[in-house]
## 1
Amino acid sequence: NGISIISHVFKKAMKSNIGEVFVAAEDQEIIDDVNKNGGQAILTNSHHKTGTDRIYEALQKLGKSDIELVINLQGDEPLMNIEDIRKLHNQMIITESELGTLAANIKDKNLYDEKNVVKVETKESLENSQFPKAINFMRKSNVKTKNIYHHLGIYCYHVETLKKFVSLDQSQNETKYKLEQLRALDNNIDIKVTLASNAPIGIDTKEDFMAIKKIMEYKP
């Protein structure tokens, strides 16, 4: 519909009405696109190994001292549900947690073997517990394992936890599985998980892009 993916994402973040929204990117092309579409953007270094490291640099450049929580909504998630974003934010406040994320039920069994769909295993089921701890994150998993969910591309950090996270070296599991959240678990930083209403398509492949394009262009 004439708007870039990243601009769809920041507009979705703004609609959640939680706080100020900034896009952190290493490419001037992205910065220009966001500014053109009415958003705020921060140009960051190109050496970052993970999105979390990029988020922290952007936070430092902002130079604001009154921020307690930072939500990292990943730039390939234009269909993230606004109420789910708010739910994660509220759970972080209520429970005074260090780090939280969202996950959804897996309805298609083929996704258990799909490496582009990250899975999370939780200590208790998300249906029975409001904000249980994550035990592990993986790219492939066994259908029969209990409490396995589809992990969504969003995190909410307490600022002090974000500082601690970026000060740590990448862990072996993080580099092996290419999952930055394993750095937190490997360093005893709890990640809490709350249940999302659905699992929106994130854009990892050209097929994902075409599927989202059809959804967004459909006018009933």
## 2
Amino acid sequence: EVFITHPDGAEQHLATRGEGTIIGEMALVDRQRRTASVRAVDECTMIEINESEFKRRLDSSDPVMRMITQVILTRYRDTLSRIDSFGSGGNYSASEEIEKRATSSGKTVEHLKTANEFKDAIDNNELQLYYQPIIDMQTKQVKGFEALMRWIHPERGFMPPNLFIPIAEDSGLIVAATDWAIEEACNAIQRMKAICPNLVNDAFMSVNFTAQDMLQDDFLDKLKNVSQKTKINPAHVKLEMTERLLMNNPEKVRNMLQGCRDEGFKIAIDDFGTGYSSLSYLHHYPIDTL
């Protein structure tokens, strides 16, 4: 049961909260001292969400979600300031000015602009794949290639992958970009085999995928369609992902990877050792290459 204490010391019952509800959420968003208190009328367990934890999660969220949340909280705080100053002749900032300050902080606007330009890049064929050879150190033969996505902006020139890939993931555009990349990479390996007689017949193409790609319900169907369209053996396609992906919805990812293996596609883990790095969970997934 939630009570509020008045300046004269009297308590007023505000509400009764049931199991699983949030209490005191306004203390998180307005950063002002609150006078409400809570009494347990039954045996219960309280889980604390403190201000620093809330701020950390908000700061690490998607930039657009963070901007919208900040605007909502700003309007709430602005409403409080208007209530506090109502009838007292106090001054308060216009809510529009407060919102401008909230949205101008950070790089949210630049993030949105880049996301829009990346969508145009997919539609206008501004993306390219660079092919990094993978070499057998004993025979010195090229065994395959890793397809690396690059963006040549018509005005800004070469865009670093560590700039546009996170934005593509945040905006969801990475799925369309990966759909393009897998088909282009499969076509490339066929072209390479035609013009490079010394290339081994089982040369493979490794393509990077994200959690967003693999958790699409039609992911495996799209892979099969691309292999049929480009006339490439699934065994010559290696699906490359980071170990972090394995931690996102692990059972669904495992089932998806097993379906890919059953169709003949190979599975590779990239950047092992930079994240969770547990050798034990590698046995849980159908992985070919580390």
## 3
Amino acid sequence: ALLITAMGPDKVLLVAGVSDDLIAQGAHAGQWIGEVAAVVGGSGGGKPAMAQAGGGNPDRIDDALELARQQISDLLG
């Protein structure tokens, strides 16, 4: 799984990618990024393998990244 972030003074851009083996285990980039984007005050979505999102609260990026890590760790067991 891969999560790329870019930030400006008042916005965040997120792009997520999920490998085929993680998709087989139930991961979905669109669902994952939607939950992560909510932490930074945004929304997004996409397909199982790739998705993008945006938000307006860059101050919460550390919380969003921690959620992203935790979700993938939970999936991997």
## 4
Amino acid sequence: GFTYYLGDTVTPAKTELKGYRLDLAFSYPLARAILWGVDGKFVNLDINKRNEAIYAVTADMGVIWLVSKFVRAAAVGHNLVPISRPELPVQSAVGVSFGRDTGFQAAADAVVNYLSKDNIVATYHAGLEFMAGDILALRVGYTFDQVLDDNQFITTGIGLVAPRVGIDFGFKQNMTITDDRYFSLVLRLFTG
């Protein structure tokens, strides 16, 4: 995977990030209903306001349990090779989703950010997705973010999903600091 970043962060101060991330991911079924995966990442980010850069290699690892046809649970660790940067902290997450891949889904998760030994905070997400015609994804979500001083966000998105390609557009509005908003555009290519 390839991700290009261009935008602002709020923490630790409003900072412009520009750069890219390369991902190489693998997954393997450990049992009939348990899937394991790992993602190696190379990150190259310029932090313009502080005249700094991040060049780092790290990895994510996770497991998904297919509880039933309509229920899935997951646990994941992010940035498990520590980068020691507030922009890319070590994280652990747990989540659950209900629904069908080709219909309506509801999901919730909690992400714990290990910013330092004395600064461990969580972010909570909940969202809904509806797949129309097995190709058009409509999404809405809510985030409560303790990393950003208990800021609350509303998110919306739309995506087109085909067998080999996906295009997603998203919008995130901070409800606590109303002039803080994000737009995202993601192009995904699938193989296999």
